[in-house]
Amino acid sequence: MLKIDIPRSALLMLHCQNDIVSPEGKFAPSGISAQVAKHNLLQKWVAVVNASRDSGLRVIYVNNVFSPGFPELGETSFPIMMGTKRYGAFVRDTWGAQVPEEITPLQNDLVVENYNTSAFSYTNLDMILRTNGIKYLFLAGVATTFVVNSTARYGAELGYNIGVLEDCCTSFTEEMHNFEISHVLPHFGTIYQADSFIAGLFKR
């Protein structure tokens, strides 16, 4: 059974923001909010976040946040990020950039702002983790094929031990999510379910 080293571990909540997870969000036409609802991800996120806090595990939110006009992206960014600009998503101080109320960050949680598909790219996440002696990362969020994939790969290359909470992630389609879980992410970390993660928080 999974036993989590609480002081050396963190839960990363990746891009769990209204614009991508809510049916009223800017990314709703992509179909991802429908997948979030279909798999009850919000309820699962509430469970893993609350259990992490109760156990003393560090919870870190990684949020896409852009200034009005998207100066961070310019005109030559790659297509997936230009889609963010096209949708007008994740604009600072808007409802769409916020985390859903049910899992809103609390005082002891950390929030990292990013502008890319990797939680490590152009952020201070690596510094925060190393300063706090964190070695083990558990990933949850959307989309499996983008921020989860990029963060798992980049994190593994930096020397972190990666765990992906499979039933706390989803993508634009079932096929995209399942391909990542079956064929890509196992090469960069270990696949877990939320129940085993929660049990591992309290195993002594």
Would you write up a description of this structure?
This protein is an alpha/beta fold and 204 residues long. It has a single domain (6-201), classed as Rossmann fold, CATH 3.40.50.850. 37% of the residues lie in helices and 19% in strands. A 6-stranded parallel β-sheet has the order 3-2-1-4-5-6, with helices on both faces. The mean pLDDT is 96.
CATH superfamily: Isochorismatase-like
What is the CA-based Rg, rounded?
16 Å
Would you count the extended β strands for me?
6
Q: How many structural units, i.e. domains?
A: 1
By CATH reckoning, the class would read Alpha Beta
Read across the widest sheet, the strand sequence of neighbours is 3-2-1-4-5-6
Residue stretches low in confidence (pLDDT < 50, at least 5 long) are: none
Structural class: alpha/beta
Spell out the helices and strands N to C: EHHHEHEHEHEHEH
Rounded mean pLDDT score: 96
Instruction: Name the shape in a single word.
Output: globular
Strand content: 15-25%
Distance between the termini: 11 Å
Number of helices: 8
Summarize the entry for a quick read.
With 204 residues, this protein is α/β, with parallel strands linked by helices.
Primary descriptors:
6-stranded parallel sheet; alpha/beta; Rossmann fold; 204 residues
